[in-house]
Amino acid sequence: EQHSRGQAGFEKGASMKSMTGFGHAAYRDKNVAISVELRSVNHRFLKLTCNLPDYFASSQDILEDLLRRRLSRGSVNLSVSLEFTNGSHLLDADALRRLYRRMSSLRSSLGIRGEVSMEALLETYWQGGGIRGAASAAARRHSGKVASLVRQSIDGLMAMRETEGEHTRRDCLSRIRAIRKVVAQIARRVPASVRAQTEKMTNRVNELLKGNRREVSKEEIAREVAIIADKCDVSEELSR
Questions:
Q1: Single pTM value for the model
Q2: Which of 1, 5, 113, 195 has the highest count of CB atoms within 10 angstroms of its CB?
Q3: pLDDT digit string (tens) for 171-211?
Q4: Rounded CA separation 20/162 (Å)
């Protein structure tokens, strides 16, 4: 009964989803460019793989929870990329001034001639973690935007899964209709096949008994016909 209801729903257009899909969303402003990609292929259970920049490592649990709320099966790969399009916003002017004064003071105390170059200043700032710290802080400020992009990517992935599922459903229905057509043709031919086999057997018996005084009773022929009919019965195969 459950199978019948499921089949009826399938044929009436019940939703069918594929496990293959792709979703993408992006964001860009004057400082950052963020891209999110979501890919899914067939898998018995839900398998999540997250490729995140170090800046967003702390957001992995939150993003995986977003995926689990919407997806139940498939091997799903989430990729997030972040690019700082304007590096100047990662520079702390006050910190650079303090660093410049310290470097200048150290140069003087060591008796080193010349001025502290911008290249040396920025290199020292980078090695000291200034830019990395500013980049991490900027990434944290955009964590909410990343979560929003993941949601958009899930929407795109689900839409593609439904489209692929509908294509598969229609293909299955087309094949089902072809199978039913063949089954109906076979079912119509079964009685004629039994009659043909019966006639063939009767003719062969009559041929073998030519010139023989023994007669074959109708009961014997009927018994053999019943055996042939049983062997020709394909009702179980048609049902399957």
A1: 0.59
A2: 195
A3: 989 999 999 899 888 888 877 877 787 778 777 777 776 76
A4: 10
